[in-house]
Design a protein that fits this description.
The complex is a heterotrimer of chains A (245), B (56) and C (146). With 245 residues, chain A is mainly α. Chain A has one domain: Four Helix Bundle (Hemerythrin (Met), subunit A). With 56 residues, chain B is mainly α. Chain B is 89% helix and 0% strand. Chain B is built from two helices and no strands. Chain B is rod-shaped, with a radius of gyration of 22 Å. Chain B starts with a helix and ends with a helix. Chain C has two domains: 33 residues; 86 residues, OB fold (Dihydrolipoamide Acetyltransferase, E2P) (Beta Barrel). In chain C, strands 1-3-4-6-5 form a five-stranded mixed β-barrel. Chain C is elongated and about 70 Å long. Classes of the chains: A mainly alpha (245), B mainly alpha (56), C alpha+beta (146).
């Protein structure tokens, strides 16, 4: 198998240039999709038969919760690649992903709380789904704290990567918590197989928002990885040529 | 009053609007922070390069 | 801050984070491994007698009675095999409806009933406009939950 493209992609100068070219192509469509999704979710989608207009929080809660897990999967995958193949760029990707993931986990928890108060009757319950999502936030913050506490970048990368891999166990717990235990949180709406549990006029803005948030993460990640590469490669020869441009 | 009805969100305005407001604020802040991180790292690298060249 | 101080802060942050996570895990997965008990589990004697716990199920259609002049509500929670009468004084969540899911936190009254201190509504993962819901489940008396 020809893997030269992989080695090329993993080289910081190459990745830096590709990321710089890619970022606007991810960011602007993300913005457009999120605006369409906001309009669709707030205006075009009909009110729910049980929750009335209150169900619209779904359109920011579900994409944030989706990103909180997608970002962690990205972070853990990058950490694993970094540990196994000793690819420095992978560690840079993991470190760049962490603050993004922490933010969206926070949004998922806060919007869930704003949704739970009127519908369930409480801001917070210690049920398995909510607790596992809170632990996810602590994993992101722990990853950042551990990385920040070690001066040597290589050692910090490896220590934080081990923590990231230990925390992977939390991802299936979050996803399946609503099936494994009696939880207050309801089951999944669109990931379950079979007929969707949501009508199309309510579903499409959600799919647009999910795509928009995902592209937004990709755009944020490319910019943050670029910044991380600049910090790590400050003595590299290629940077001189790059910055002169 | 269409706009007033829209803003009232069927009585859930106190929950729906903070949720959307928070989500949009965090999205915008993240976009700004990522750009700032890149710009700062670039400026820092340039300063360092200029310093190295002055030393040489 | 010296590098040593930064390391100490970092280690403290990790210990605090891991400790909090462990505590939360214990809370959530040990004591509340089942966030709530079903009426059948209570009938089988699985629920604690002395301690507070949660009972979850559907509100039996037609069972909700409000005491006039107070906030006290009586209703029956069922899982379609067993049911338990619940007494509660307080504000009910918006989604509290006959035939819908509910989780009540409280304790047994020793006479086969349950006294709730908190009542939460549990909704399902189905979202649809009212017209669609009506066409799927035409409103009819005594239709039973679903």
């Amino acid at each position: 198998m020809d893997r030269t493209w992989l080695h090329k992609l993993a080289s910081p100068p190459h990745f830096y240039r590709i990321a710089g070219r890619l970022a606007p192509w991810l960011g602007w469509p993300a913005l457009a999709l999120i605006l369409i999704g906001l309009y669709g979710g707030l205006v075009l989608a009909p009110a729910d038969h049980q929750q009335g207009e209150g169900f619209r929080i779904l359109y920011v809660h579900a994409p944030s919760a989706w990103l909180s897990m997608l970002v962690y999967a990205t972070l853990a995958l990058a950490s694993g690649i970094g540990l196994i193949w000793r690819i420095k760029l992978a560690h840079a990707v993991a470190l760049a992903a962490a603050p993004i993931g922490a933010w969206f986990t926070f949004v998922a928890l806060a919007t869930g709380s704003l949704w739970g108060k009127p519908m369930w009757g409480t801001w917070w319950v210690w049920d398995a789904r909510l607790t596992a999502e809170l632990i996810l936030l602590f994993l992101y913050l722990g990853f950042l704290a551990l990385h920040g506490a070690i001066d040597d970048t290589g050692r910090a990368d490896r220590a934080a990567a081990v923590l990231a891999l230990v925390g992977v166990i939390n991802l299936p717990v979050i996803h399946y918590s609503v099936y494994w235990w009696n939880t207050l949180h309801q089951g999944a709406t669109i990931t379950k197989l079979g007929k969707p549990s949501i009508t199309f006029d309510m579903l499409w803005p959600l799919l647009v928002m999910l795509t928009g948030f995902t592209l937004c993460f990709a755009a944020l990640l490319t910019r943050r990885v670029q910044a991380e590469i600049l910090r790590r490669e400050r003595d590299a020869a290629w940077l001189r040529a790059e910055l002169a441009r | 009053m269409n706009a007033a009805r829209f803003l009232a969100m069927g009585g859930y305005a106190a929950y729906v609007w903070p949720a959307f407001g928070l989500a949009c604020a965090v999205l915008l802040w993240n976009a700004w922070a990522a750009r700032r991180a890149h710009a700062r790292a670039r400026a820092e690298a340039q300063r360092r390069l200029a310093g190295l060249e002055a030393d040489a | 801050m010296t590098p040593r101080h930064r390391r100490m802060v970092g280690v403290a942050a990790i210990l605090a984070g891991v400790g909090a996570a462990a505590l939360l895990a214990r809370l959530a997965f040990e004591e509340n491994l089942l966030y709530f008990f079903s009426p059948s589990q209570i009938a089988a004697g699985e629920a604690p007698v002395e301690r507070k716990f949660r009972v979850g199920g559907l509100v039996t259609p037609g069972s909700v009675q409000r005491d006039p002049g107070s906030l006290t509500v009586r209703f029956v929670v069922t899982d379609n095999r067993h049911s338990i009468p619940v007494r509660y004084s307080g504000v009910l969540p918006d989604l509290f409806k006959e035939g819908k899911g509910v989780v009540a936190n409280g304790r047994l009254d020793g006479q086969g009933g349950f006294v709730a201190e908190e009542v939460l509504a549990k909704h399902d993962e189905n979202y649809m406009p009212p017209e669609v819901a009506d066409s799927m489940h035409p409103p009819q008396p005594g239709g039973g939950g679903g």
